[in-house]
Design a protein that fits this description.
Elements (H helix, E strand, L loop, with lengths): L1 E2 L4 E9 L8 H16 L4 H14 L13 H10 L8 H13 L3 E5 H4 L4 E5 L5 E3 L6 E3 L4 E5 L4 E4 L17 E8 L3 H19 L2 E7 L1
Parallel strand pairs: 1-4
Antiparallel strand pairs: 2-9, 2-10, 3-9, 4-7, 5-6, 7-8
Length: about 210
């Protein structure tokens, strides 16, 4: 993983030998606990400051983190408040649990679908985009923080929505998790990466490694 964006911090997790399955009772209980904690502090100075810092991280060039361009972590908090928190499988739930705990957006990339093991994080360029859902909707990436797979420098993930072609699925066995944070929240990104690695081992049976940049 290479970082080419100033004042940004990236926590990363690589998990191999994943077993994707419905979340068990233990993981679901952890999610309920995280939802309750997040909702009880949603209007606190801590939560407000964290959300503001993450939005400010994404204010780059022409990109404005508002409306549909808000960080994915804000959508999860809203879903929790509305009783619509998504329950899909253990891999996705772990991602969403850590995102809710840290109030940081996280991307998941299926390494098999990506077909590579090298990635770079940088700001999106003019004309870059990708399809982010099965219906073919397109996310414009100009000035948005993103993850590109190498050596082709092909965008595959962002703090807003991930590319459909490299999203995880029931057959995922190897995955990359990327936690995005402003440099001032480096400790939160590090704690989140460690937490994600531990949960992937516990609930997906994965062999993991993790790190923080810079």
């Amino acid at each position: 993983m290479e970082l080419q964006a100033e004042n940004i911090c990236i926590g990363w997790v690589v998990a191999r030998e994943c077993r994707v399955a419905p979340s068990d009772a233990g993981l679901l209980a952890e999610i309920e606990g995280a939802k309750n904690r997040a909702l009880s502090t949603a209007d606190s100075p801590y939560s407000t400051a964290r959300k503001s810092a993450v939005r400010d991280m994404l204010r780059h060039g022409t990109y404005k983190p508002t409306g549909r361009g808000k960080p994915a972590s804000e959508y999860l908090l809203k879903a929790a408040a509305e009783g619509a928190f998504p329950i899909i499988n253990n891999l996705v739930e772990i991602n969403n649990l850590v995102s809710l705990e840290q109030l940081l957006p996280i991307s998941l990339v299926d390494l098999g679908r990506a077909g590579c093991a090298a990635f770079v994080v940088h700001w999106g360029r003019e004309g870059e985009s990708y399809v982010f859902n099965p219906s073919g909707q397109v996310l414009e990436l100009r000035d948005l923080l993103l993850v590109s797979k190498m050596p082709g420098d092909e965008p595959c993930a962002s703090p807003i929505k991930d590319r459909q072609a490299t999203k995880t699925h029931d057959g995922t066995r190897e995955v990359l998790g990327v936690l995005y944070a402003p440099l001032a929240l480096r400790q939160a990104a590090s704690e989140g990466a460690l937490r994600m690695a531990e949960l992937l081992t516990l609930y997906c049976g994965a062999v993991t490694e993790w790190g923080i940049l810079p």
